[in-house]
Amino acid sequence: MKLKINGEEREVAGVENISDLLSAFKLEKKILVVEWNRTIVNKEEYANTRLSDGDQIEIVHFVGGG
Amino acid sequence: MTQTLKIGPHEFHSRLLLGTGKFASLDIQDRAVKASGAEILTFAIRRLPIDNPEAPNFLEKLELDKFTLLPNTAGAYTADEAVRIARLAKASGLCDMIKVEVIGDPKTLLPDPVGTLEATRRLVEEGFVVLPYTSDDPILAKRLQEAGAAAIMPGASPIGSGQGIVNPHNLRFIIEAAKVPVIVDAGIGGPADAALAMELGADGILLNTAVSGAKDPVLMAEAFKLAVEAGRKGFLAGRIPKKRYASASSPAEGMIE
Q1: Which residues of A touch B91 (CB under 8 A)?
Q2: Contacts of B83 (CB under 8 A, 6+ apart)
Q3: What is this structure's pTM?
């Protein structure tokens, strides 16, 4: 399915939910936050949040800053 | 006693808050953080590079139970953007404090007073412990406090400029009127700037470039730690007034002739 992840259009196969998506990119152990179609998804809901074609996802983390 | 710094429900011993941006290496960053004695570290929220997840990240190496994270809303030019970033930070479950940074102009990086006030109001309502980065305008500082800010963070001068305190008079007005801690944030250049801010009565200092951009960031972090302590003690000790004429230190009587 086509997903826009962090501003980039991607063709991602074999993922049904956010949990799958994070696994596909090997991000399961990272400290991160997911926003799915402008809604923040809590960790407990990753497996329950089904992805659809055209979904927009932001995956963010903490970086150095002042 | 120099007392602890209380921000919202939190209490700290160190009055030096450290930014974590623009360090040359993770090793220097780690040693500078230790040398600074800082307990509060600021961070920005940015997209994770999903194609390179193993890229080194300072937060992931940090002993989280030893520090309090203060994420910022850097990058926001509107209250909406700031609120969105703040919510993302909070969703990590790692922090309830947020540094509201709503910028009005990319060249000067001066805060947008309207956006800052609006973001502060909204985030206070959502239960955040809000620390707004603001200008040295005493009336705006008053409004931010009324809006529920847990601390006020007026700039000494533009972010990263190293100019030090350009308007000590306004800073003084803000400090005198404040009922919440005043943390001077932005533009600090050298330890003397931090000491001066503390001598004016500030409750804390937040700096980043002054340490990360120094030739020896680790030594500079230590210098700032000492400067903040010195300035705080100097403030509590009650300095002498400035006089126009001299007042001899040695006695006038008993002089040989």
Answers
A1: 33, 40, 42
A2: B119, B122, B123, B126
A3: 0.95
